[in-house]
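Journal club side-thread
Mid-discussion, someone asked how the predicted structure for our own chain would compare to the paper's figures. Pasting it here so we can look after the session.
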Amino acid sequence: MTTLKSGDNAPQFESVDQDGNSIKLSDYKGKKVVLYFYPKDNTPGCTAESCNLRDNYDQLLKNGYVVLGVSTDNEKSHRKFIDKYELPFPLVADTDKSVHQLYGTWGEKSMYGRKYMGTFRTTFVIDEEGKIEEVIEKVKTKDHTSQILK
């Protein structure tokens, strides 16, 4: 679980998006950022969360937010996910888990008594100055936008 909290500086990162283009948090200085970490492309919860953000994207833009999704999937997987669900925002390919490590969103999980390493579904709302405004750890995948815009 993350140790980051409201008021902390958002850790800076550089990775690649679904098209292999460099993507840095610093590229969004002066904008509010919704940085959401999700476990895997094309899984039910992750699809619901991403599509909720897609369906409310205009509302997020009107409120001054840009949206960036992050998972450990590669660029090719992200490109297919974006194309299949017409996602209007970039997805960060964090295949080496370096961004997850910075944000504390990678760790041991358990399901049905089995322990495994995975992504903690977490969203960071970052202000124009690069400070974390809010950390959402109990993400409602089908109604995530209302958690952000509350």
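Post-session note: Residues 14-149 form a domain with the Glutaredoxin fold (CATH 3.40.30.10).
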